[in-house]
Structures are given as structure tokens and as C-alpha cells.
Amino acid sequence: MLKEFILQPFSSDINDQDLKSIYDLNQANVPEVGSLEDTLALSELIRMSSFNLSIKFNDEIVGYIICFKEGSKYQSLNYKFFQESIDEFLYIDRVAIKDGFRGQGLGTMIYDSIYVKANKSNVPLLCEVNTRPVNEPSLKFHAKMGFKECGTNDFSYNSVVYLRRDNGA
Q1: CB atoms within 10 A of CB 118
Q2: Any idea where the domains of the chain sit in the sequence?
Q3: pTM of the complete model beyond 0.85
Q4: Region 2-123: CATH code
Q5: Residue 73: Cβ-neighbour burial (10 angstroms; 0-12, 13-18, 19+)
Q6: Which of 52, 75, 121, 159 is most buried (CB neighbours < 10 A)?
């Protein structure tokens, strides 16, 4: 079934329809991913990012990932956690798969592509996962994919665990 899915990079020149689809998918996955005010905020996020992919099925976006390298002007507190302690990295800011498409290997497919990018650059892959409210499926997925805990943070609105996957893991 994975042959029917198309992995496609996107950047700040993304068309309005795809931008709206990614925005809607993002908002449907709050609080697992952070809420965005509007498509303009998403567009700005994409402009600052370094590597992004979407997954399309019959021309519909059913998944996406947005990543940042070190040195971005991104102001996320979670990004800053890594920025302050690691010289070079690829940070997964947000990733989502549309309901009805989960459990089909799409998360693994998109992460495998990100691993290639991180390994070519010889940098660790970093992310955070909510522990309050707990995102148990994401915690299990990241453990299965070889991520290890490298810190935690408690905010007033949520708590997170910081995860790291080194090259070759």
C-alpha cells in the first residue's frame, strides 16, 4: 500500500492549497503539535525551516514534517533547548499524519527520509514529545525508531521529553 503514497519536499514557495491542507492537518492534531494562529504563521514557520516533507495520497496531503537546523531564528522554547546545548542538528518541530492514514507505516516512511538527511549531514535528529498531556503513541513510536531521552521540561501548559537519535541508530 505504501506505493500509493508520494513523499514530496515543500518550501516557502508552497502553493496556497497545500499550505491550507498542512495548516488544517496541523490544527486537527493539536495538542500533539502546537497550534498555529493562521496560514500566515505556518508560512513563516516554513520560511525559517530547513527541510520539510509532505505525504500525498491521490493529491491530498495526508501527512507532513517540518524540520529546522541549528542557527534558525525560530523562537520555540523546545528548539532553543537544543540550540543552547548542541552545535549541529536537525530538529523535528512538528509531524502529523491524518486520521484514517495512521498505522500504515507513513510515520516510518517520513522518518526514514529524515534519517537520510540527518545522516548525510552527520548530525543528530532531535525532537520533543508531550508527556503532559501524554502522547503515548508518539512516545512508543520514537522509542521503536531508536530515539533516546536527553532531557525534560515542564511548562505551565504542558510537559515534554526531549529525544535524540544519533547517526546509525
Answers
A1: 24
A2: 2-123
A3: yes
A4: 3.40.630.30
A5: exposed
A6: 52
Across 55-71, average pLDDT: 96
SS (H, E, C) 39-76: HHHHHHHHHHCCEEEEEEECCEEEEEEEEEECCCCCCC
Map grid coordinates 548530525 to a residue.
123
Exposed, middle or buried by CB within 10 Å (0-12, 13-18, 19+), for 127?
buried
Q: Which long-range contacts (CB under 8 A, 24 or more apart) does 113-119 make?
A: 113/7, 113/53, 114/51, 114/53, 114/65, 114/67, 114/90, 115/165, 117/51, 117/67, 117/90, 118/90, 118/165, 118/167, 119/167, 119/168
How confident is the model over 90-101, as a mean pLDDT?
96
3-state DSSP assignment of residue 90: strand
At 148, is the secondary structure helix, strand, or coil? strand
